[in-house]
Amino acid sequence: MMNLNELNLELLECKRCPRLVAWREKVASEKRRAYQAEEYWGKPVPGFGDPRGRVFVVGLAPGAHGSNRTGRQFTGDASGDFLFPALYRAGFASQPKSISRTDGLTLHDLYTAPVCRCAPPDNKPTAEEMVNCQPYLEQEFEVIQPRVLVALGRIAFDAILRIFAIPAKEIKFRHGGAYPLTGGKTLIGSYHPSRQNTQTGRLTVEMFDKIWAGVRAQLDK
């Protein structure tokens, strides 16, 4: 079994999905006007956090001008602007803002990684692209051995079910739902903290804080 450093070195060389390779590099080359002075990451985005974390948060994919720019999960985009304050309030993050890989942010007892490691066009990876990326998430679960897995959105939820070989028809995604997995693990579902959800009120600050309170309750069992 590879350790996280070895896994990330392999990940950074990954070119399994030609469409995603072309897109991530195109975005990194052309850049958004607001970030013209910055050097974009433009590569697969590794997981981030505490390698001994009992909590593993699974997202969807890097944002074209978020993680694909900064090189760190949920950093530099609207989703991270909603997620990290919640993690800070719950005691899982050292600060409420995530701006760059060098901003000093650390995560406590928590690790996070996306289902798809490269920024996809329209933020929509294909089923094949997600399958290509699945071994990275599987190996991270094996190395870290989290007790609680938090799925941010249905796609992340379904990806976790696939890894644990649970038919999707047996467990339905529900915000705040908690489901037992093999090995004494628990899966918690949450709406994704995307702008589409947070600005429409589908996911509120209070709703999100309850998710992390539920995570804490699982850890205290």
Structure description:
The chain has 221 residues and is an alpha/beta fold. It has one domain: Uracil-DNA Glycosylase, subunit E (3-Layer(aba) Sandwich). The protein has eight helices and six strands, in the order H-H-E-E-H-H-E-H-E-H-E-E-H-H. The chain has helices spanning 4-12, 18-30, 67-70, 78-89, 127-144, 154-163, 195-198, 205-219, and strands spanning 48-49, 55-59, 110-114, 148-152, 178-180, 186-190. A six-stranded mixed beta sheet has the order 1-3-2-4-6-5, with helices on both faces. Helix 4 crosses helix 8 (205-219). It is globular. The two termini are 29 Å apart. The relative contact order is 0.16. The model has no long low-confidence stretch (mean pLDDT 96).
Distance between the termini: 29 Å
* Overall pLDDT confidence: 96
How would you characterize the largest beta sheet? 6 strands, mixed
Q: Assign an overall shape.
A: globular
What is the CATH first-level class name? Alpha Beta
CATH topology: Uracil-DNA Glycosylase, subunit E
**Low-pLDDT segments:** none
How many helices? 8
Please identify the structural class as seen in this structure.
Answer: alpha/beta
Strand tally is 6
Give the tally of structural domains.
1
